[in-house]
Design a protein that fits this description.
The complex is a heterodimer. Chain A is built from 13 helices and eleven strands. By secondary structure, chain A is of the alpha/beta class. Chain A has two domains: 5-117 and 213-235, 3-Layer(aba) Sandwich (Peroxisomal Thiolase, Chain A, domain 1); 130-207 and 237-395, Thiolase/Chalcone synthase (Peroxisomal Thiolase, Chain A, domain 1), CATH 3.40.47.10. Chain B has one domain (5-151). The radius of gyration of chain B is 17 Å and the shape is globular. Classes of the chains: A alpha/beta, B mainly beta.
């Protein structure tokens, strides 16, 4: 049995700091995706929302809010939250409904209106929440963890700040070509080096911003796509949302310590690599089949980790790839041709959906100036707090 | 006048563990828990269940963690973190250092602030550090205590006594 679903529509509200409600952004992205699919909202059988936790009460930040904004029409609704992987879980839920025959057309929406500055936990006195504790006890912001990973790479693999800067230069060059990106100007290595240190060894331009933005997809069964005359749609072939394996030996947000490996030997490979491996296995494809990848470059150094985790190179060889230009537009395996988080800034519930929008446009061959020639297979990958993460494989 | 000293989180550390050097001194340690069924160690402590997927254990006992470890990585905070981190917005922000420390016996990595005055320039991956008592913040209501890591002085060998701060 095929586990493919068709991507008939993809749409975004441009990333930025627009000062409006997440509902406005999400509704605009949904309308754009429906128009792209050539479908009416009233033809949608189910809507899946990636929750916008900073928007307030869980009932308000959910899929139903988008269904109301688009006009109540009786579609079934699902809402999911999985930190940075929320959008991918929304895609997974939509795909499961289509493959189960519960719906032919599903709209997936994620949108955020992010506050300025460091992400912070919800208020109150909540010592049972690990996210609250890491701020209260350590003041450990997200960039602090990115700094720890970057320093570890420098010590283990000999990477330098100049390697990290190359990632920003590469992603800014691609983002300059993307009308949906927030930052659309080229950045030089000198500009990265001149930006202030936030969390040693990382500088401001090594770390992604927090943004407003929205992304949406219209997913359908292959039969529905064929009936609408789309014989060769972009297809989502795999969605991995696996959890980590105990013991986790890499310090991860928002944890204050890793698991102990004293009683149980750790499995080889990182959580991030397990996310990608599960997606490759489900798709029956491997890294050698890829035309491009969209990975979660929360920091420049973290993008180099992803090269290794999704199998583009061996452990410790990430910096070599970016130095060679292999992952730039026009390189052997372009990574983040959208410009990545470096050019977008993070709009949490929208981001994993935005990654799949870029895969869709690249696989259709409609990515304009940032088109990867002859793209046939793409993977997106991300990781969020509390053991959430995802990888999506799309094909044409 | 003595001010109230309250741990920032209850049950995560103590200054009353028998030192390992036989001196009879009581020393400062982080406190974790160990599953009595499989031996898995947890910090921050798990008291109600063991998180080893192959173990159904629900009896965990408190254990002091190793007083020393090696630096897994380190960074610093050049900008003021948001609440609930406590800092006085009227006072210019003083960067502090964060250290991730690998404990050999427990085979785990624990994060902590470095002792005041320790900067990233004082640290290297693989360096030996020790856990010491520290102050997180203080106000009219008293002092919130925490744990800090600091490099073990060069001259100090493995027989060195567990460090104590007089504050």
């Amino acid at each position: 049995m095929s586990t493919d679903v068709a991507v008939l529509g993809a749409g975004m509200h441009p990333w930025g700091k627009w000062g409006r409600s997440f509902v406005t952004y999400g509704t605009a992205a949904a309308r754009a995706a429906l128009a792209d699919a050539g479908l009416e909202w009233t033809e949608v059988g189910a809507v899946v929302g990636a929750d916008t936790v900073r928007g307030g009460y869980p009932g308000h930040v959910a899929g139903a809010t988008f269904a109301r904004a688009l006009g109540w029409q009786g579609a079934r609704v699902t809402s999911v939250y999985a930190a940075c992987a929320s959008g991918a879980q929304a895609i997974a839920a939509a795909r499961a409904q289509i493959l189960a025959g519960l719906a032919d057309v599903v709209l997936v929406v994620g949108a955020d209106a992010a506050p300025k500055g460091f992400f912070a936990p919800a208020g109150g006195d909540r010592p049972d929440d690990p996210d609250w504790l890491r701020f209260r006890v350590l003041g450990a912001t997200n960039p602090a963890y990115f700094g720890l990973y970057a320093r570890r790479r420098m010590a283990l693999h000999g990477d330098g700040p100049e390697d990290f800067a190359l990632v920003k230069v590469k992603n800014a060059a691609a983002g300059a070509l993307n009308p949906n990106a927030r930052y659309r100007v080229p950045v030089s290595a000198e500009e990265v080096a001149a930006s202030p240190v936030v969390a040693d060894p990382l500088r401001l331009l090594d770390i992604c911003a927090t943004s407003d933005g929205a992304a949406a997809l219209v997913l359908t069964s292959l039969d529905f796509a064929r009936a609408r005359g789309v014989a060769d749609p972009v297809r989502i072939r795999a969605v991995s949302t696996v959890t980590p394996a105990y013991p986790r030996t890499e310090l991860d947000l928002p944890d204050i310590a890793t698991d102990s490996a004293a009683a149980v030997a750790p499995a080889p490979g990182s959580f991030r690599s397990a996310l990608a491996r599960a997606a490759y296995e489900e798709a029956g494809l491997g890294p050698e089949d890829l035309s491009l990848a969209e990975v979660y470059d929360l920091s420049t150094a973290l993008e180099l980790e992803w090269y290794e985790d999704i199998g583009l190179c061996g452990e410790g060889e990430g910096a070599k790839l970016v130095r060679e230009g292999a992952t730039a537009l026009g390189g052997r395996i372009p990574v983040n041709p959208s410009g990545g988080l470096a050019s977008f800034g993070e709009a949490v519930p929208a981001q994993a959906i935005a990654q799949v929008c870029e895969l869709t446009w690249q696989l259709r061959g409609t990515a304009g100036a940032r088109q990867v020639a002859g793209a046939r297979v793409g993977i997106s990958a991300n990781q969020g707090l509390f053991g959430h993460g995802s990888a999506v494989v799309a094909v044409r | 006048m003595a001010r109230t000293r309250t741990p920032v989180v209850a049950g995560w550390f103590t200054d009353d563990v028998q030192a390992e050097d036989g001196s009879g001194e009581r020393g400062f340690r982080l406190l974790g828990t160990r599953c009595t069924a499989c031996g898995s160690v947890f910090f921050p402590r798990e008291d109600a269940y063991c998180r080893n997927p192959h173990c159904a254990g629900d009896e965990l006992v408190e254990v002091p963690l190793s007083p020393r470890g090696t630096v897994w990585s380190y960074t610093d905070g050049r900008y003021r973190p948001p609440a609930p981190y406590v800092s006085d917005p009227a006072v210019p922000w003083e960067p502090y250092t964060l250290v991730a420390v690998e404990l050999a016996a427990e085979r785990m990595v624990v994060l902590g602030q470095a002792a005041p005055g320790v900067t990233v320039a004082d640290l290297a991956v693989g360096m030996t550090v020790e856990v010491v008592p520290g102050v997180l913040d203080e106000d009219a209501g008293g002092v919130r205590t925490t744990w800090h890591f600091r490099p073990v002085p060069e001259a100090s060998g493995p027989q060195a006594r567990t460090a104590r701060e007089s504050s």
